[in-house]
Amino acid sequence: MENRDLWQTVLAKIELTLSRPNFLTWFQGTGVSNIAQGTATICVPNGFVREWLQNKYHKAILHALREINTDIREAVYIIGQPDGAGVRHLPKEHLNKRKEISAPSVLMAEEMAIKELTVNPETNLNPRYTFANFVVGSFNELANAAGQSVIKNPGMTYNPLFIYGGVGLGKTHLIQAIGNELLAQRPQIKVRYVPSEKYMGEIVEALRNQQMNALKERYRAFDLLIMDDIQFIARTEKMQEEFFHTFNALYERNKQIIISSDRPPQAIATLEQRLRSRFEGGMIADVGLPDLETRLIILKTKAQTKEVVLSDQVLRHVAENIKNNIRELEGALNQLVMTSKVSAAPIDLETAKKVVASYTATPRKFLSPKKIIKAVSDFYDITEKDMMQHSRKKDVVKPRQIAMYLMRENLKSSYPSIGDKFDGRDHTTVIHSCEKVAQDLITNPELEEELKAIKERILLA
Ligand code: ADP
Ligand code: MG
């Protein structure tokens, strides 16, 4: 079995439990270089990451590894390069076997896996997101077509291009593929892909170092700016203001802007009117849910790049049971491929059912409202009962707000249902709490550290 595939599956699991920036910070450039005598050797880029993984994520990593390969009992971390090592250490017979199967597709898969986490620091684009591996169906047809127009005539047709839709439905893939494609066709242009949270982080950092002008200039020099998950920016006026000026500067010079969001502009409650009307002045395209047949095509396309043949019946079972999220579809497929490789046998329907059931249940194992409440109260050293009380004392108000915020961000719970968990509080109280924490996060790096630490507690609980 391929260490690389194994590690990709581990990463897919861990990614679900962390914020994107956190995940990238700690897991970018990591890999499994070797598994022997029950010990998995994990390569990490530097000593800092090694220490962090060892101290903070060891349990979660080991747990995820063992779920795939029960022979693994221990994990150790070394400093080194995973990709090169992974390729060099492939046993000869393995290479020969691979050739017989289907050289081009295996090679392509290999190449994609190598590139998996190599994000270009200048553009911040991930080369794995391309149109070659992007399936178009009626659910994303409009967004895709708009993207193709933008590629033909950047800055001249749809500006901005605003793409919205639910989690795991391919927004990030599409907008990055547009960036990668434009860059391939016109290597001289300056492209920047940035999730809005990262952009806000850059602004906070620039303010701290008094380099705001440099940052402004930098952003105003891009030919294509791709802002992912803009909904987060709407939480603070200052950020919206900053973005507004950058937007205008680019727009006036016909520079292309692409924006994604989890909902349409009019549904982002705190979005300023002037930004909303700018967005509405361009093209707004939604990404919906893929239907069963499209899910099946997505699965088949992805399965082709694996070394394992999965029956139509098995793939259909996956497609029928995972409906709302392409990322989960992919995760279940990887799990099946892994299971088949470990057992060296084709997957029957019974096994597929188990894998799909266990896969869809996994993310919740890590996180639940209960775990969040417990971790937060432990961290701030108050009792869970204190947290529920209707007290306005500062040392209970803050933890309560944070617990609400974490439920909203990590479990995507509705505001009223979060209120229920806190002794039937009104949903407006919950909204206020979540917004308060989001606001504080921008100006208070210590709070961010606290949240990180709490999330780690939850993960390790
Ligand atoms: P979003 O940004 O909407 O949350 P992503 O773009 O991160 O979703 O997509 C989740 C996963 O599903 C990614 O691994 C992506 O490559 C894959 N994916 C999404 N849409 C498609 C598609 N149309 N064809 C192939 N893979 C897709
Ligand atoms: Mg996304």
Characterization of this structure:
- There is one protein chain.
- With 461 residues, this protein is α/β, with parallel strands linked by helices.
- Helix content is 61%, strand content 10%.
- The chain contains 21 helices and eight strands.
- The chain has helices at 3-15, 20-27, 47-68, 82-88, 92-115, 141-152, 171-185, 196-208, 212-220, 237-252, 273-280, 292-304, 312-321, 326-343, 349-366, 369-380, 384-388, 394-411, 415-421, 427-443, 445-460; strands at residues 31-36, 39-44, 74-79, 161-165, 191-195, 224-228, 256-261, 283-287.
- The chain has a five-stranded parallel sheet, with helices on both faces. It has a three-stranded mixed sheet with strand order 1-2-3.
- Helix 1 (3-15) packs antiparallel against helix 14 and helix 19 (415-421) packs across helix 20.
- The longest helix is centred in the first third of the chain and has 24 residues, at 92-115.
- The protein starts with a helix and ends with a helix.
- 37% of the residues are buried.
- Residues 84-116 have low confidence and may be disordered.
- Residues 171-172, 228 line the site of magnesium ion.
Put the structure in a nutshell.
The chain is an alpha/beta fold.
